[in-house]
Every structure is written in structure tokens, then in C-alpha cells.
Design goal:
heterodimer; A: alpha/beta; Rossmann fold; 25% strand; B: Rossmann fold; 9-stranded mixed β-sheet; two-stranded antiparallel ribbon; 6 helices; 30% strand; flavoprotein (chain A); ETF_a/b_N (chain A); FAD (chain A); electron transfer activity (chain A)
Chain lengths: 361, 252
């Protein structure tokens, strides 16, 4: 209850701080903001991309009461729910859909779940991360609710005003949602990094409740069946959240040579990325692809080896803090976005870097 | 079985787009337009399924202004049997409305499979396929890198590109599939086929005839250029690079 009281004072404070000019516009558009975050968990903990979605929810408004929706079954979901309950001060409740049908992220069941939870909760916003899970289920759920979703948001200016990249990141589009509730969106995780204060566990955890599935519409299930997931087991940090990313392109010439890049990544504690050319040539699996159609990353340091810098690749990494390019071709477009460029043979540079780089902390 | 393929006309993928000075959008006049690359892959997949004998007819569909007929001609030249052009005028149509138009067409055409690209490279939405599947209550196989059709059992096994690797699903037909880049290598239209395509039929309909209201619950406020990165430097050696990263960039 103490948390609720705190929330109320916070809400009152932010109300009085509104300029009189903005108040009527806001109150007309959004009466009360309550957000549903559709979250993913893995092995009992919330995925970092879902925590970014919570940050984005907090960015919509400081007077937001956030509900986190988790689905699955077994002991893992209980652990994940406990973590979610104390992961951010604005989280007011955790909803758990405990059933075997949510074990796998099938769009058919998850979209119906979001629909059901929305009908009961009447949220003003529904958010999920813009990853393969969010992109798959959220538009389907939006169609069931007859609203247009906004995907891949990089900035939230007002509760219904967002910025999203279009044309492979070569233009930024500011859009206003003017439809009925809920406003549905997916966010780019790198644009909403976790704040340190919200990483600290809050003193009072939010209540956890079970979603009542008795009215769940199962009429159309069973039309799709999950068979298997062939995952690439790797010790490396997750590409989407890594602090350092080293990427190889066609210039690496073979899968064997990618091992060299992996050695460098190990030394830097970095994740390994790749261009489409490297994936198509079979050097690495496709889930390492960085770009418009692959993963979007924004690490502190991005090192591109033998990458020419096609529009579609730049789309996935142009927001990195520091970009380093190593390429034999001095005219490669990658040098136009690089902070530091080195025109040299990567087969000379990588071993030298491995030798000379300081050990990771 | 009939396969319906949705295609979109977009600015060619190799063009460097220019934002209009009045911030109303991106310059599209006098710019090379092509079929969206993911739609080409969707069409190629449909053609391969027809060639394998699992489907009888491939119908290409597009929603947009008069010029979109060119994109449908390309689809016909690649091998589509016929085409439907939903002329929605010049104003942009949101994925939700496109999905409703496609649902209406599905109800007319009764296909066993609807294939779309996973996203259009202009709006980068990645929504339409999922939305039409939701509206139809059909199962969906998004970001497909492999599709195997079992005609007897009326199921499609779809391998999907997901974050952690590859996921395999089995979908009952009819279903919606959206294509990822690695599904196939689209063919080129040969000159004889381009000539033949001229005699194929493009049927024109309007959204009103399909009883679909074009809804726009999203307003574009402005379109701007992304912030420019400050000019970088070319270093001469690995030592200099490490030094810069340590002392200037402070990332090591």
C-alpha cells in the first residue's frame, strides 16, 4: 500500500507540473494511463528486451501503472513473476497466464491472450519488445482489437506521439496515434536502456495474480503446432544487448576465418555479428545478421571487419556509440559512418588486435 | 489449391532516399520504384509451389494507386496467372486497412495459402501478414526460411527465423505465411514472359466494392532526416586505433 501511496503523490505532483496549455490536449487524448507489458522469460528470468519494454512503458508517463503479462507453466514462470514484481517502481501488478499452451510463443494463442487480458484490464497502452516474439504476436493481437499498431519505436515524446525509423533508418517518422484504446506498440530495446535506479529491487513487490482463463477462446487453437527450435548455443553475450559487437562481412572469406573473429570477441567480451553476405555465404547462422532485416544493435563499440556498409546493414548499427571500420577498400561506404577507420587487411589487423588489446575487465 | 500473393510497390532498395524539405515525407517523384524484395520472394515461393504441383493457380494482389499496375505486370511476367489491383488512390494505406482488404479478397478467392513478404522496406512495419491472419483466424508462419507443403494432410511445415535460431511450426491449411530473405532466390522475368504478361488479366476493384473502409488511426506528424554522425578519422595503425579507443572514445 505504501507503494501505491507513493505512486499517488507522484501522480499528483506530475499533474500540477503540467502547463495549462498542454493539459486540455492531454486529458482529451488520454484520461488515465495504464500499460500492459507483454513480457518474455527464459529459464526463470525476464529477458532483457522485456525489461527495456518496461522502461519504455515508464517513459510514456510518470503517472503510469504498469502491468506485466507473463505466460508459460512450470516452476520457471513463478520465479520470473517474482523478478518482474520487483523490477520497476511503476509496476503495479504481474499477471501470470499459467497454462501449457503458452509454453511456446505461438502467435495464435498469445494474440488471444492479449485480447482477453485487454478486455478485462482496459489498458490504454500495450507494449512489447520489437524482437521475433513481439513482431509475431503484437500485430495479430492489434488486428483482433481493431487498432493500428506502431512498431519499432525509438522515442516516446508524449503518450500518443512516437518516433520510428522508416526506409531502413534513413528517415525518422513522427507519428501520432489518434485511434481508440489501446495504443499498441513494439519498441526497439537498444533505444530504451535500463536505468540503474530501476535495476535496484524495490522495497515492496507488486502483487502477482493469475489470469482467469475460463473464458479463453480456444476455438481456433490446434491449427498451429510447435515442433522444435534449433538454437545456436553460445557462451557469448546476447547480440541485442552486448556492450561490444564485432561484425564480419564477406571480407572474412570463410567460416573458418570467422573463428578468428570469435577469438577477438572473446578477448573483448563482445558479441559476434554478421552481414547478410556472410550469412548467405554460409559463414555463420542467420540469427547473427545485423541490419534492416536482422537484428538492430546499438552497442558502445561496434567493430566492422570486411563490411562494405550497404544501406541495409547500416540500418542495424548506425546508432552505435563508437563505430570502427577495418577494410581494405578505402572507398567502402562504411568509412562514412565510422568514427575510426583503418584501411588495412583484416587478416593482419585481427591477430594484432588480439595480441595488443588489454584483457577484458 | 489457389495461392494468393500480396505485393507492394516501393522505392527501389538500392536508392538512397531523400527527405522532403517540408518534412511531409520522402521524395518519391522521379525515383526508381520496384517490387518490395520480400514480396518477390513471396511470389517466387508461390510459383515454386505451383510448379511442384501442389497448387493450381497463383494470384498476385496489390493495394495502391494506378502506378501499382506496373508491379502487378512484373508479378505476371515472373509467372503469376492473374492479378487483382485494389485501387485505393494516392493516399497511403495503413497495414490494418491492407489486411482488411486482403481478408475481403480471401473471402472472394478462397485461396488455400496467402503469402506475403515479412515487411515492406519503405514503412518497415512488419505487420500486414500477422494482421490478416488474425482477422481470418488462420494460423500464421512468419519470417519463413523454409516451407514444405503436404497436400494430402493439408498442412504446411514452416521453418522460421527467430532470435535464438530456427523454429519449426506445423500449420493447418489455409494459412498465412510471411517470407524472410533466405526462403529462396527470386527468378528474373525473361523477355518472352514479359511479352506474355501483357495479355494476362489485371482485375481492378476499389475498397468500396470490397466493403472495406480505409481507416487511418495514425497521423504522420513529420518525417525528418536522422541525426548525422560527426566525421570520423582514418587511423594509420592498430596501435593508434587502440590508443584512440582507450583515450578518445573511452570504450576500451
Amino acid at each position: 500500500m505504501a507503494a501505491l501511496a507513493m505512486l499517488r503523490t507522484l501522480r499528483n505532483r506530475s499533474f500540477t507540473s503540467f502547463s495549462p496549455l498542454r493539459l486540455p490536449i492531454r486529458s482529451a487524448l488520454s484520461r488515465f494511463i495504464s500499460t500492459l507489458v507483454v513480457a518474455e522469460h527464459d529459464g526463470g528470468s525476464i529477458k532483457p528486451s522485456s525489461l527495456s519494454a518496461v522502461e519504455a512503458a515508464a517513459a510514456i508517463s510518470r503517472e503510469n501503472s504498469i502491468s506485466v503479462l507473463l505466460g508459460g507453466s512450470g516452476p520457471d514462470i513463478g520465479k520470473a513473476a517474482l523478478q518482474a514484481a520487483s523490477s520497476h517502481p511503476l509496476i503495479s501488478q504481474v499477471l501470470v497466464a499459467d497454462a501449457d499452451i503458452f509454453l511456446h510463443p505461438l502467435a495464435e494463442t498469445w494474440a488471444e491472450l492479449v485480447h482477453l487480458v485487454q478486455q478485462k484490464g482496459g489498458y490504454s497502452h500495450i507494449i512489447t519488445a520489437s524482437n521475433s516474439f513481439g513482431k509475431n504476436i503484437l500485430p495479430r493481437a492489434a488486428a483482433l482489437l481493431d487498432v493500428s499498431p506502431v512498431t519499432d519505436i525509438t522515442e516516446i515524446s508524449e503518450p500518443h506521439l512516437f518516433v520510428r525509423p522508416i526506409y531502413a533508418g534513413n528517415a525518422l517518422c513522427t507519428v501520432r496515434y489518434v485511434g481508440k484504446d489501446p495504443c499498441m506498440m513494439t519498441i526497439r530495446s537498444p533505444s530504451f536502456p535500463m536505468h540503474s535506479e530501476s535495476a535496484e529491487p524495490k522495497s515492496e513487490a507488486a502483487p502477482i495474480s493469475q489470469v482467469d482463463l475460463s473464458t479463453f477462446n480456444e476455438e481456433f487453437f490446434g491449427k498451429s503446432r510447435w515442433l522444435k527450435l534449433a538454437s545456436q548455443d553460445t557462451e557469448r553475450p546476447d547480440l541485442g544487448n552486448a556492450r561490444v559487437v564485432v561484425t564480419g562481412g564477406r571480407g572474412l572469406k570463410s567460416a573458418e576465418n570467422f573463428k578468428l573473429l570469435e577469438k577477438l570477441a572473446e578477448k573483448l567480451g563482445a558479441a559476434v555479428g554478421a552481414t547478410r553476405a556472410a550469412v548467405d555465404a554460409g559463414f555463420v547462422p542467420n540469427d547473427l545478421q545485423v541490419g534492416q532485416t536482422g537484428k538492430i544493435v546499438a552497442p558502445e563499440l561496434y567493430m566492422a571487419f570486411g563490411v562494405s556498409g550497404a544501406i541495409q546493414h547500416l540500418a542495424g548499427m548506425r546508432d552505435s556509440k563508437v563505430i570502427v571500420a577495418i577494410n581494405k577498400d578505402a572507398d567502402a561506404p562504411i568509412f562514412q559512418v565510422a568514427d575510426y577507420g583503418l584501411v588495412a587487411d583484416l587478416f593482419d589487423v585481427i591477430p594484432e588486435l588480439i595480441e595488443k588489446l588489454p584483457e577484458k575487465k | 489449391m489457389k495461392i494468393l500473393v500480396a505485393v507492394k510497390r516501393v522505392i527501389d532498395y538500392a536508392v538512397k532516399v531523400r527527405v522532403k524539405p517540408d518534412k511531409s515525407g520522402v521524395e518519391t517523384s522521379n525515383v526508381k520504384m520496384s517490387m518490395n524484395p520480400f514480396c518477390e520472394i513471396a511470389l517466387e515461393e508461390a510459383l515454386r509451389i505451383r510448379e511442384s504441383g501442389a497448387a493450381k493457380e497463383v494470384v498476385a494482389v496489390t493495394v495502391g494507386p494506378a502506378q501499382c499496375a506496373d508491379t502487378l505486370r512484373t508479378a505476371l511476367a515472373m509467372g503469376a496467372d492473374r492479378a487483382v489491383h485494389v485501387d485505393a488512390g494516392a493516399a497511403p494505406v495503413l497495414p490494418l486497412s491492407v489486411a482488411k482488404i486482403l481478408r475481403a479478397l480471401v473471402q472472394v478467392e478462397q485461396p488455400g495459402l496467402l503469402i506475403l513478404g515479412k515487411q515492406a522496406i519503405d514503412d518497415d512495419c512488419n505487420q500486414t501478414g500477422q494482421m490478416v491472419a488474425g482477422l481470418l483466424k488462420w494460423p500464421q508462419g512468419t519470417f519463413a526460411s523454409k516451407v514444405v507443403l503436404d497436400k494430402e494432410k493439408q498442412v504446411a511445415t514452416v521453418e522460421r527465423e527467430v532470435d535464438g535460431g530456427l523454429e519449426t511450426l506445423c500449420l493447418d491449411l489455409p494459412a498465412v505465411i510471411t517470407t524472410d530473405l533466405r526462403l529462396n532466390q527470386p527468378r528474373y522475368a525473361t523477355l518472352p514472359n514479359i511479352m506474355k504478361a501483357k495479355s494476362k488479366v489485371i482485375k481492378k476493384v476499389t475498397p468500396e466494392e470490397l466493403n472495406v473502409e480505409i481507416k487511418s488511426d495514425l497521423e504522420v506528424v513529420q518525417v525528418t532526416e536522422p541525426p548525422k554522425r560527426k566525421a570520423g578519422v582514418i587511423v594509420s595503425s592498430v596501435d593508434e586505433l587502440i590508443d584512440k579507443l582507450k583515450n578518445e572514445g573511452r570504450v576500451l
